[in-house]
Specification:
single chain; five-stranded mixed beta sheet; two-stranded antiparallel ribbon; elongated
Length: 445
């Protein structure tokens, strides 16, 4: 509800800001209905000289008209309105058919000048705002001079003494003028504050966009390195086998075919390196980590304070480059989440089980850290993995995108991921990395 109200307020403010002249023209009409019509009626009913009434009417019209450009040209609108008010203050008192006299500056339309003072104070700088306040106070002096002695213009001080009349009138006019000016200054401070907040929000959004662009560039670098290691290995094997087939029987009809395969493979390897270099900021392709780099990663994790134990069973065997990299990333992400969610004092277990068809990686933590033992939970983080170097290897900074990234990696090599809370607290992650590629449903977990 609050969000919808904020959006509605923002929409209204935006509309009012885009249509200042139209909105102020409507406001001028609304003010002219109660104030201008009454002032016009008083002038028509007066039996003062026509020239005097025409001058007063023109001044009243100018004051009302200045409402329209008050926000677009605040200084000009205020200056013209102040001149019109001075004319009203200097005109002789108007004569009423009933025999009453009153200064022209007491016409109801004079109240519009307060709005113009407020707008000038809110729109102009401090120096010009103080100048506008000085003009308004000078006008107060002119008004006080005209009504200082009520008897001189047929007025009355009511039931109060002349001193009380003068004191009350002086204090009242000065206070109203100062309040209108101060409210305008407060409005200006608020507008500047809102503008600064908006600028900060825009800068923050620009920073987030830059961070996203840098993250995308880093991800492209990582992908290019991994593709280079995986694809180049396969192409190198293909070229080697083709050359072996050609050299085994150079005179056979198939030798030319093997030579063609080897040549195409070399060209593809060269083109791949060039194309993948475009993805990288430095144009290079550094080797990617694998399970052979686990010792450095585990040592780094232990230096953070995590009590880590490692168990390995079965007969280890070489993995495909893509599967080897995926296995390393899974261990890296799981241990990073142990540190991130279970805390640096957590107890963790890493188990590598080499079965006939696949490698099973299991990471458990007993909790007891910052988050009460949710080590690699569903909110598994992303960020700098322990022991990740500039190329994602042991000494630095790149990591996948949490559990979602793990599942995607494993799915691409035909593996699967299972996660869940342990009965006694903590969390357990189990990943299966097959030795040979096989298809799995996209929803495998």
């Amino acid at each position: 509800m609050r969000a919808s109200l904020s959006q509605a307020e923002a929409a209204v403010d935006s509309f009012l800001g885009r249509h200042r002249l139209s909105v102020d023209a409507v406001l001028a009409v609304l003010l002219a209905v109660p104030l201008g019509l009454v002032s016009s009626g008083l002038l028509r009913a007066s039996d003062s000289p026509l020239s005097q009434r025409l001058l007063a009417g023109a001044a009243v019209l100018v004051v009302h008209a200045c409402v329209i450009p008050r926000r677009v040209r605040p200084l000009a609108a205020y200056g013209v309105a102040a001149a019109a008010m001075l004319l009203l203050g200097l005109l002789p008192p108007l004569h009423d058919p009933a025999g009453a006299y009153y200064p022209a500056v007491m016409l109801p339309s004079s109240l519009v000048f307060g709005l113009l003072l407020y707008t000038a104070s809110a729109r102009l700088g401090l120096r010009l705002g103080l100048a506008c306040l000085g003009v308004a106070l000078a006008g107060v002096v002119v008004v006080l001079a005209r009504v200082w002695a009520p008897a001189s213009w047929g007025g009355s001080s009511g039931g109060y003494g002349l001193a009380a009349w003068r004191t009350g009138l002086s204090a009242g006019l000065a206070a109203v003028t100062a309040c209108l000016w101060w409210l305008g200054r407060l409005s200006r401070v608020r507008a500047l504050y809102v503008a600064e907040l908006r600028a900060k929000a825009e800068r923050a959004e620009a920073d987030r966009a830059r961070e996203r662009a840098e993250a995308a560039r880093a991800e492209r670098d990582r992908i290019s390195r991994e593709m280079h290691d995986v694809v180049s290995h396969s192409l190198a094997v293909m070229v080697s086998q083709a050359e072996g087939g050609r050299l085994s029987d150079p005179g056979s009809p198939g030798a030319a075919v093997f030579a063609t395969i080897a040549g195409v493979g070399r060209d593809a390897l060269r083109d791949m390196r060039g194309l993948l270099g475009v993805l990288r900021a430095d144009g290079g392709t550094a080797p990617q980590p694998g399970l052979g780099d686990l010792p450095a990663l585990l040592d780094h994790v232990r230096t953070t304070g995590v009590r880590l134990s490692v168990a390995e069973s079965g007969e280890p065997r070489p993995l495909r480059p893509a599967a080897d990299l995926t296995a390393y990333r899974v261990v890296q992400e799981a241990l990073t989440n142990v540190i991130k969610h279970a805390g640096p004092e957590a107890t963790a277990e890493l188990a590598l089980a080499w079965s006939p068809g696949a490698l099973r990686i299991t990471v458990r933590n007993a909790g007891g850290g910052r988050d009460g033992g949710s080590g690699a939970g569903p909110g598994g983080g992303s960020g700098a993995g322990p022991g990740a170097g500039p190329d994602g290897g042991p000494d630095g900074g790149e990591l996948g995108a949490g559990l979602t990234g793990m599942r995607e990696r494993l799915r691409m090599v035909g593996g699967a991921l299972e996660t869940g809370a342990r009965p006694g607290g903590g969390f357990e992650l189990s990943a299966v990395v097959p030795y040979e590629p096989r298809s799995l449903p996209s929803s495998a977990s």
